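Dig into this one:

. . .
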Amino acid sequence: MKYTCYGHSCFAVEIKGKRILFDPFITHNELAKKVDIHAITADYIFVSHGHEDHTADLVELAKRTNATVVSNFEIVTWAGKQGIEKLHPMNTGGKWKFDFGTVKCVVAQHSSSLPDGTYGGNPMGFVFMTEEGNFYYSGDTALTMDMEQIPTIAALDFAVLPIGDNFTMGIEDAIAAAELIECDKIIGVHYDTFGYVKIDTKEAVQQFEDAGLDLLLPEIGSTIEI
């Protein structure tokens, strides 16, 4: 499975020949200036919640790539009003079998509003279950005991968790989350983009290592094999 980092909480995963993009926020991210958004392709775009740092490039990318946008009912409804035609609404607790595998929507403890200030519905995380591997993207979230349910849904090969603190989990809570979801390979997101979420990445990696966990922090624009 290939994982491509586009900065902040935007990344793509390739599964069974399908390219799945998450939380597109690139052109407004100073750290992602080298990323050519016009070169990005996608078959699906999953959106965890409505905040601008997860949706800023959604409309442009969805229209250009003709990707199917998957999110909660409110965000999908809003996306349709922006002229996006391929849409798949979901909500917390639901699952759906796509052509690349099955996705279950799970709880995220955060807030959600759309760029125009309208209600963005409940934030969500996603558990992907595929022939090439299983993974969990928590979206922006606090540490929550709901995470104990994740291992009952799927045995994870890796998880994508926020580590920047202030708006989401920080390092300590992300380590606790890794233990709850029973996953020792974590890809960190939602850090360094703004002053509020800047962290010491070397210290973060060491803290995860001390806990017996592997924290991956891919460079923006890079692709890694998982």
About this structure: Residues 2-225 form a domain with the Metallo-beta-lactamase; Chain A fold (CATH 3.60.15.10). Residues 156 and 214 are 14 Å apart (CA to CA). The chain has one domain: 2-225.
